[in-house]
Design goal:
The strands form 4 sheets. The chain has a 7-stranded parallel β-sheet with strand order 3-2-1-4-5-8-12, with helices on both faces. Strands 9, 11, 13 and 15 form a 4-stranded mixed β-sheet that branches. It has a two-stranded antiparallel sheet with strand order 6-7. It has a single domain, classed as Rossmann fold (3-Layer(aba) Sandwich). It is 40% helix and 18% strand. It is globular. It contains 12 helices and 15 strands. The structure holds nicotinamide-adenine-dinucleotide. The site of nicotinamide-adenine-dinucleotide (NAD) has 27 residues, from helix 1, helix 2, helix 6, strand 5 and strand 9.
Protein backbone atom coordinates (compact mmCIF):
# COMPACT_ATOMS: atom_id res chain seq x y z
CA UNK A 1 0.00 0.00 0.00
CA UNK A 2 1.30 3.43 -0.94
CA UNK A 3 -0.34 6.35 0.80
CA UNK A 4 -0.50 10.00 -0.31
CA UNK A 5 -1.44 12.61 2.28
CA UNK A 6 -2.94 15.71 0.71
CA UNK A 7 -3.72 18.78 2.81
CA UNK A 8 -6.28 21.29 1.54
CA UNK A 9 -7.76 18.32 -0.31
CA UNK A 10 -11.10 20.03 -1.03
CA UNK A 11 -9.44 23.14 -2.46
CA UNK A 12 -8.48 23.75 -6.07
CA UNK A 13 -5.03 22.19 -6.15
CA UNK A 14 -5.62 19.66 -3.39
CA UNK A 15 -8.71 18.18 -5.07
CA UNK A 16 -6.99 17.90 -8.45
CA UNK A 17 -4.10 16.15 -6.72
CA UNK A 18 -6.54 13.75 -5.00
CA UNK A 19 -8.06 12.78 -8.36
CA UNK A 20 -4.71 12.35 -10.06
CA UNK A 21 -2.90 10.31 -7.40
CA UNK A 22 -5.91 8.15 -6.54
CA UNK A 23 -6.09 7.18 -10.24
CA UNK A 24 -2.52 5.92 -9.94
CA UNK A 25 -3.83 3.45 -7.37
CA UNK A 26 -2.51 5.23 -4.27
CA UNK A 27 -4.62 5.38 -1.12
CA UNK A 28 -5.28 9.07 -0.68
CA UNK A 29 -5.79 10.64 2.73
CA UNK A 30 -7.25 14.14 2.51
CA UNK A 31 -7.07 16.78 5.23
CA UNK A 32 -9.37 19.80 4.96
CA UNK A 33 -11.54 21.58 7.52
CA UNK A 34 -13.20 23.99 5.06
CA UNK A 35 -11.33 26.88 6.60
CA UNK A 36 -11.74 28.62 3.23
CA UNK A 37 -15.33 29.31 4.31
CA UNK A 38 -14.05 30.94 7.51
CA UNK A 39 -11.65 33.09 5.46
CA UNK A 40 -13.94 34.20 2.63
CA UNK A 41 -17.53 33.30 3.49
CA UNK A 42 -20.09 30.79 2.27
CA UNK A 43 -19.47 31.52 -1.43
CA UNK A 44 -15.89 30.21 -1.08
CA UNK A 45 -16.70 27.08 0.91
CA UNK A 46 -15.10 23.94 -0.51
CA UNK A 47 -17.57 21.51 1.07
CA UNK A 48 -19.20 20.82 -2.35
CA UNK A 49 -15.85 19.64 -3.67
CA UNK A 50 -15.10 17.50 -0.62
CA UNK A 51 -18.49 15.78 -1.00
CA UNK A 52 -17.76 15.03 -4.65
CA UNK A 53 -14.42 13.47 -3.83
CA UNK A 54 -15.98 11.29 -1.13
CA UNK A 55 -18.79 10.20 -3.46
CA UNK A 56 -16.66 9.53 -6.53
CA UNK A 57 -13.33 8.18 -5.30
CA UNK A 58 -13.32 4.88 -3.45
CA UNK A 59 -9.67 5.05 -2.37
CA UNK A 60 -10.15 8.50 -0.82
CA UNK A 61 -10.53 9.03 2.91
CA UNK A 62 -11.32 12.48 4.28
CA UNK A 63 -10.21 13.91 7.64
CA UNK A 64 -11.79 17.14 8.88
CA UNK A 65 -8.63 18.20 10.71
CA UNK A 66 -7.09 21.63 11.26
CA UNK A 67 -3.41 21.42 10.28
CA UNK A 68 -2.62 23.62 13.29
CA UNK A 69 -3.52 20.76 15.65
CA UNK A 70 -0.27 18.85 15.89
CA UNK A 71 -1.66 16.00 18.00
CA UNK A 72 -4.24 15.17 15.30
CA UNK A 73 -1.72 15.46 12.47
CA UNK A 74 0.68 13.29 14.42
CA UNK A 75 -2.05 10.68 15.01
CA UNK A 76 -2.66 10.42 11.28
CA UNK A 77 1.01 10.15 10.35
CA UNK A 78 1.54 7.58 13.11
CA UNK A 79 -1.36 5.51 11.78
CA UNK A 80 -0.01 5.28 8.21
CA UNK A 81 3.70 5.55 9.05
CA UNK A 82 6.19 4.44 6.44
CA UNK A 83 3.49 3.51 3.94
CA UNK A 84 3.21 7.26 3.30
CA UNK A 85 5.28 7.94 0.19
CA UNK A 86 3.94 11.38 -0.72
CA UNK A 87 2.76 14.48 1.10
CA UNK A 88 1.24 17.31 -0.93
CA UNK A 89 0.72 20.30 1.31
CA UNK A 90 -1.69 22.86 -0.17
CA UNK A 91 -3.80 23.88 2.86
CA UNK A 92 -3.32 27.58 3.51
CA UNK A 93 -4.74 30.99 4.14
CA UNK A 94 -4.09 32.07 0.54
CA UNK A 95 -4.93 35.80 0.34
CA UNK A 96 -2.58 38.70 1.01
CA UNK A 97 -5.44 41.13 1.63
CA UNK A 98 -7.09 38.82 4.16
CA UNK A 99 -3.87 38.21 6.13
CA UNK A 100 -3.78 41.77 7.50
CA UNK A 101 -7.23 41.26 9.08
CA UNK A 102 -6.13 38.37 11.25
CA UNK A 103 -2.35 37.90 11.27
CA UNK A 104 -2.50 35.21 13.97
CA UNK A 105 -4.75 32.94 11.92
CA UNK A 106 -2.75 33.60 8.76
CA UNK A 107 0.62 32.86 10.35
CA UNK A 108 -0.49 29.90 12.41
CA UNK A 109 -2.09 28.18 9.39
CA UNK A 110 0.64 28.98 6.87
CA UNK A 111 3.78 28.74 8.99
CA UNK A 112 2.95 26.61 12.06
CA UNK A 113 0.72 24.30 10.03
CA UNK A 114 3.57 23.66 7.60
CA UNK A 115 5.97 23.04 10.48
CA UNK A 116 3.54 20.47 11.91
CA UNK A 117 3.46 18.55 8.64
CA UNK A 118 7.22 18.67 8.17
CA UNK A 119 7.88 17.46 11.70
CA UNK A 120 5.37 14.62 11.34
CA UNK A 121 7.05 13.66 8.05
CA UNK A 122 10.46 13.67 9.71
CA UNK A 123 9.22 11.49 12.57
CA UNK A 124 7.03 8.98 10.75
CA UNK A 125 7.89 8.83 7.04
CA UNK A 126 11.26 10.51 6.39
CA UNK A 127 11.63 8.77 3.02
CA UNK A 128 8.44 10.34 1.64
CA UNK A 129 8.43 13.13 -0.94
CA UNK A 130 7.14 16.44 0.47
CA UNK A 131 5.61 18.86 -2.04
CA UNK A 132 4.73 22.36 -0.86
CA UNK A 133 2.71 24.98 -2.76
CA UNK A 134 4.60 28.19 -2.04
CA UNK A 135 3.92 31.45 -3.85
CA UNK A 136 5.57 34.17 -5.91
CA UNK A 137 4.69 36.52 -3.02
CA UNK A 138 7.87 35.25 -1.33
CA UNK A 139 9.63 37.74 -3.62
CA UNK A 140 7.57 40.51 -2.02
CA UNK A 141 7.11 43.56 -4.22
CA UNK A 142 10.66 43.38 -5.68
CA UNK A 143 9.22 42.53 -9.12
CA UNK A 144 7.64 46.02 -9.08
CA UNK A 145 11.12 47.57 -9.25
CA UNK A 146 11.97 45.89 -12.55
CA UNK A 147 12.18 48.21 -15.56
CA UNK A 148 8.66 48.01 -16.97
CA UNK A 149 7.22 49.62 -20.05
CA UNK A 150 3.57 50.48 -20.60
CA UNK A 151 1.87 48.98 -23.64
CA UNK A 152 -1.72 49.55 -24.79
CA UNK A 153 -3.22 46.78 -22.65
CA UNK A 154 -0.40 45.56 -20.43
CA UNK A 155 2.81 46.28 -18.60
CA UNK A 156 5.86 44.51 -20.01
CA UNK A 157 9.46 44.12 -18.95
CA UNK A 158 12.15 45.83 -21.02
CA UNK A 159 13.02 43.39 -23.79
CA UNK A 160 16.77 43.41 -22.99
CA UNK A 161 16.29 42.51 -19.30
CA UNK A 162 17.51 39.14 -18.00
CA UNK A 163 13.96 38.38 -16.77
CA UNK A 164 12.44 38.84 -20.24
CA UNK A 165 11.67 35.11 -20.20
CA UNK A 166 10.16 35.43 -16.73
CA UNK A 167 11.37 35.86 -13.15
CA UNK A 168 13.70 33.12 -12.00
CA UNK A 169 14.50 31.66 -8.60
CA UNK A 170 17.58 33.87 -8.13
CA UNK A 171 15.42 36.90 -7.24
CA UNK A 172 15.94 37.89 -3.60
CA UNK A 173 13.20 37.04 -1.10
CA UNK A 174 14.63 39.63 1.29
CA UNK A 175 14.03 43.32 2.04
CA UNK A 176 10.83 44.06 0.20
CA UNK A 177 7.14 44.42 1.06
CA UNK A 178 5.57 40.97 1.18
CA UNK A 179 2.19 41.49 2.84
CA UNK A 180 1.70 39.41 5.99
CA UNK A 181 0.60 36.53 3.78
CA UNK A 182 3.89 36.71 1.86
CA UNK A 183 5.76 36.72 5.18
CA UNK A 184 3.97 33.64 6.52
CA UNK A 185 4.59 31.84 3.23
CA UNK A 186 8.29 32.83 3.31
CA UNK A 187 8.51 31.24 6.76
CA UNK A 188 6.91 28.06 5.40
CA UNK A 189 9.00 28.05 2.21
CA UNK A 190 12.25 28.36 4.16
CA UNK A 191 11.14 25.67 6.64
CA UNK A 192 10.40 23.31 3.75
CA UNK A 193 13.87 23.94 2.32
CA UNK A 194 15.44 23.48 5.74
CA UNK A 195 13.80 20.08 6.36
CA UNK A 196 15.41 19.14 3.04
CA UNK A 197 18.89 20.57 3.64
CA UNK A 198 19.13 19.76 7.34
CA UNK A 199 17.35 16.39 7.53
CA UNK A 200 17.75 15.16 3.93
CA UNK A 201 13.97 14.96 3.30
CA UNK A 202 12.94 15.13 -0.37
CA UNK A 203 11.23 18.50 -0.21
CA UNK A 204 10.22 20.97 -2.88
CA UNK A 205 8.76 24.47 -2.75
CA UNK A 206 6.82 25.31 -5.88
CA UNK A 207 6.54 29.10 -5.95
CA UNK A 208 3.31 29.54 -7.82
CA UNK A 209 2.08 32.35 -10.03
CA UNK A 210 -1.73 32.29 -10.35
CA UNK A 211 -2.98 28.73 -9.97
CA UNK A 212 -6.34 28.22 -11.54
CA UNK A 213 -8.85 25.79 -12.95
CA UNK A 214 -12.55 24.98 -13.11
CA UNK A 215 -12.68 23.63 -9.55
CA UNK A 216 -11.71 26.91 -7.93
CA UNK A 217 -14.22 28.30 -5.46
CA UNK A 218 -13.40 31.78 -6.76
CA UNK A 219 -14.09 34.78 -4.58
CA UNK A 220 -13.12 38.45 -4.67
CA UNK A 221 -10.05 38.03 -2.47
CA UNK A 222 -8.76 34.82 -4.08
CA UNK A 223 -9.05 32.90 -7.32
CA UNK A 224 -8.50 35.58 -9.98
CA UNK A 225 -9.61 33.96 -13.25
CA UNK A 226 -12.37 31.84 -11.69
CA UNK A 227 -13.90 34.85 -9.98
CA UNK A 228 -13.47 37.10 -13.02
CA UNK A 229 -15.27 34.58 -15.23
CA UNK A 230 -18.00 34.10 -12.64
CA UNK A 231 -18.63 37.86 -12.69
CA UNK A 232 -18.45 37.97 -16.49
CA UNK A 233 -20.98 35.15 -16.82
CA UNK A 234 -23.43 36.28 -14.15
CA UNK A 235 -23.26 40.04 -14.62
CA UNK A 236 -21.98 40.47 -11.07
CA UNK A 237 -19.90 43.62 -10.59
CA UNK A 238 -16.09 43.30 -10.67
CA UNK A 239 -13.60 45.89 -9.42
CA UNK A 240 -10.19 46.32 -11.03
CA UNK A 241 -7.68 47.76 -8.56
CA UNK A 242 -4.90 50.02 -9.83
CA UNK A 243 -2.15 49.94 -12.47
CA UNK A 244 -4.71 50.95 -15.14
CA UNK A 245 -5.85 47.32 -15.28
CA UNK A 246 -2.65 46.50 -17.15
CA UNK A 247 -1.10 44.36 -14.40
CA UNK A 248 0.13 41.03 -15.74
CA UNK A 249 -0.15 37.58 -14.15
CA UNK A 250 0.87 34.20 -15.42
CA UNK A 251 -1.78 31.54 -14.97
CA UNK A 252 -1.25 27.82 -14.74
CA UNK A 253 -4.04 25.27 -15.05
CA UNK A 254 -4.25 22.95 -12.06
CA UNK A 255 -3.67 19.88 -14.25
CA UNK A 256 -0.38 21.34 -15.57
CA UNK A 257 0.69 21.96 -11.98
CA UNK A 258 -0.23 18.43 -10.87
CA UNK A 259 1.75 17.09 -13.83
CA UNK A 260 4.75 18.99 -12.43
CA UNK A 261 4.12 17.42 -8.98
CA UNK A 262 4.10 13.99 -10.60
CA UNK A 263 7.41 14.60 -12.38
CA UNK A 264 8.99 15.63 -9.09
CA UNK A 265 7.49 12.67 -7.23
CA UNK A 266 8.99 10.23 -9.72
CA UNK A 267 12.45 11.79 -9.57
CA UNK A 268 12.68 13.94 -6.44
CA UNK A 269 15.45 16.29 -5.41
CA UNK A 270 16.19 17.57 -1.89
CA UNK A 271 15.36 21.14 -0.80
CA UNK A 272 14.33 21.98 -4.35
CA UNK A 273 12.83 25.35 -5.26
CA UNK A 274 11.03 26.09 -8.53
CA UNK A 275 9.07 29.01 -9.86
CA UNK A 276 5.97 27.61 -11.49
CA UNK A 277 3.16 29.28 -13.39
CA UNK A 278 1.93 29.74 -16.92
CA UNK A 279 5.20 31.44 -17.85
CA UNK A 280 5.45 33.09 -21.23
CA UNK A 281 2.98 30.56 -22.65
CA UNK A 282 0.03 31.45 -20.41
CA UNK A 283 -0.27 34.97 -19.04
CA UNK A 284 -2.55 37.99 -19.35
CA UNK A 285 -3.19 41.45 -18.05
CA UNK A 286 -6.46 42.26 -16.32
CA UNK A 287 -7.72 44.14 -19.41
CA UNK A 288 -6.76 41.24 -21.67
CA UNK A 289 -8.52 38.77 -19.37
CA UNK A 290 -11.66 40.92 -19.44
CA UNK A 291 -11.55 40.94 -23.27
CA UNK A 292 -11.29 37.14 -23.35
CA UNK A 293 -14.15 36.75 -20.84
CA UNK A 294 -16.35 39.06 -22.92
CA UNK A 295 -15.71 37.13 -26.08
CA UNK A 296 -16.46 33.80 -24.36
CA UNK A 297 -19.67 34.96 -22.65
CA UNK A 298 -20.77 37.22 -25.50
CA UNK A 299 -21.70 40.01 -23.13
CA UNK A 300 -20.14 43.20 -21.75
CA UNK A 301 -18.58 42.84 -18.35
CA UNK A 302 -19.97 44.91 -15.51
CA UNK A 303 -16.75 46.30 -14.04
CA UNK A 304 -15.32 49.48 -12.64
CA UNK A 305 -11.84 50.75 -12.00
CA UNK A 306 -10.39 51.97 -8.71
CA UNK A 307 -7.16 53.89 -8.87
CA UNK A 308 -5.59 52.54 -5.68
CA UNK A 309 -3.83 49.25 -6.16
CA UNK A 310 -3.94 46.47 -3.58
CA UNK A 311 -0.95 46.67 -1.20
CA UNK A 312 2.03 44.61 -2.37
CA UNK A 313 0.26 43.64 -5.61
CA UNK A 314 2.60 42.78 -8.47
CA UNK A 315 2.50 44.99 -11.57
CA UNK A 316 4.08 42.37 -13.78
CA UNK A 317 4.83 38.81 -12.79
CA UNK A 318 5.66 36.00 -15.18
CA UNK A 319 7.43 32.87 -13.89
CA UNK A 320 10.55 31.68 -15.62
CA UNK A 321 10.02 27.93 -16.05
CA UNK A 322 13.49 27.12 -17.40
CA UNK A 323 14.87 25.55 -14.22
CA UNK A 324 11.97 23.12 -13.86
CA UNK A 325 11.89 22.36 -17.59
CA UNK A 326 15.60 21.65 -17.61
CA UNK A 327 15.35 19.28 -14.59
CA UNK A 328 12.14 17.65 -15.89
CA UNK A 329 12.23 17.82 -19.71
CA UNK A 330 9.08 15.67 -20.09
CA UNK A 331 6.94 18.45 -18.60
CA UNK A 332 5.32 21.25 -20.55
CA UNK A 333 2.44 23.73 -20.29
CA UNK A 334 -0.70 22.38 -21.97
CA UNK A 335 -3.21 25.21 -21.31
CA UNK A 336 -3.09 28.90 -22.20
CA UNK A 337 -5.29 31.61 -20.63
CA UNK A 338 -8.05 31.44 -23.26
CA UNK A 339 -8.35 27.67 -22.89
CA UNK A 340 -8.40 27.99 -19.10
CA UNK A 341 -11.15 30.64 -19.15
CA UNK A 342 -13.21 28.67 -21.66
CA UNK A 343 -12.99 25.58 -19.45
CA UNK A 344 -13.91 27.52 -16.30
CA UNK A 345 -16.96 28.85 -18.16
CA UNK A 346 -18.09 25.52 -19.65
CA UNK A 347 -17.66 23.70 -16.40
CA UNK A 348 -19.44 26.19 -14.12
CA UNK A 349 -22.10 27.92 -16.16
CA UNK A 350 -24.83 25.50 -15.12
CA UNK A 351 -23.90 25.73 -11.42
CA UNK A 352 -23.77 29.55 -11.56
CA UNK A 353 -27.07 29.64 -13.42
CA UNK A 354 -28.73 27.62 -10.68
CA UNK A 355 -27.14 29.76 -7.97
CA UNK A 356 -28.45 32.98 -9.38
CA UNK A 357 -30.79 32.47 -12.27
CA UNK A 358 -32.21 35.98 -12.12
CA UNK A 359 -28.82 37.54 -12.86
CA UNK A 360 -28.32 35.34 -15.85
CA UNK A 361 -31.15 36.63 -17.99
CA UNK A 362 -29.67 37.42 -21.38
CA UNK A 363 -26.70 35.07 -21.34
CA UNK A 364 -26.50 33.17 -24.58
N1 LIG B 1 -4.51 29.92 -6.23
C1 LIG B 1 -3.46 30.66 -6.45
O1 LIG B 1 -3.49 31.54 -7.30
C2 LIG B 1 -2.16 30.41 -5.70
C3 LIG B 1 -1.00 31.07 -6.13
C4 LIG B 1 0.19 30.79 -5.48
C5 LIG B 1 0.22 29.89 -4.43
N2 LIG B 1 -0.92 29.28 -4.03
C6 LIG B 1 -0.87 28.34 -2.91
O2 LIG B 1 -1.33 27.08 -3.38
C7 LIG B 1 -2.03 26.41 -2.33
C8 LIG B 1 -3.35 25.92 -2.83
O3 LIG B 1 -4.09 27.00 -3.34
P1 LIG B 1 -5.60 26.80 -3.76
O4 LIG B 1 -5.90 27.89 -4.71
O5 LIG B 1 -5.84 25.39 -4.10
O6 LIG B 1 -6.30 27.15 -2.35
P2 LIG B 1 -7.77 26.77 -1.86
O7 LIG B 1 -8.14 27.83 -0.89
O8 LIG B 1 -8.66 26.48 -3.01
O9 LIG B 1 -7.53 25.39 -1.07
C9 LIG B 1 -6.93 25.34 0.18
C10 LIG B 1 -7.77 24.41 1.06
O10 LIG B 1 -7.12 24.33 2.33
C11 LIG B 1 -8.12 24.28 3.33
N3 LIG B 1 -7.54 24.77 4.59
C12 LIG B 1 -7.20 26.05 4.87
N4 LIG B 1 -6.74 26.14 6.11
C13 LIG B 1 -6.77 24.89 6.63
C14 LIG B 1 -6.43 24.34 7.89
N5 LIG B 1 -5.96 25.13 8.89
N6 LIG B 1 -6.55 23.01 8.09
C15 LIG B 1 -7.04 22.22 7.09
N7 LIG B 1 -7.41 22.69 5.88
C16 LIG B 1 -7.29 24.01 5.66
C17 LIG B 1 -9.25 25.16 2.80
O11 LIG B 1 -10.50 24.85 3.39
C18 LIG B 1 -9.20 24.89 1.31
O12 LIG B 1 -10.14 23.89 0.93
C19 LIG B 1 -2.08 27.37 -1.16
O13 LIG B 1 -1.03 27.02 -0.28
C20 LIG B 1 -1.80 28.71 -1.78
O14 LIG B 1 -1.16 29.62 -0.88
C21 LIG B 1 -2.11 29.50 -4.65
Amino acid sequence: MSVAIITGSAGLIGSEAVRFFSKLGMDVIGIDNDMRKFFFGEEASTTWNRRRLQAEISNYEHYDIDIREYSKIEGLFKKFGKSISLIIHTAAQPSHDWAARDPFSDFSVNANGTLNLLQATRNYCPEAVFIFTSTNKVYGDLPNYLPLIELEKRWEIEPSHKYQGGISEDMSIDQSKHSLFGASKVAADVLVQEYGRYFGIKTVSFRGGCLTGPNHSGTQLHGFLAYLMKCAATGKHYTVFGYKGKQVRDNIHSSDLIAAFYEFYQNPGVAAVYNIGGGRESNCSMLEAIDICQSITGREMNYSYEDSNRKGDHIWYISNLSKFKSDYPNWSIKYNVTQILQEIYDYNIEKWTKEDSSLLAGVS
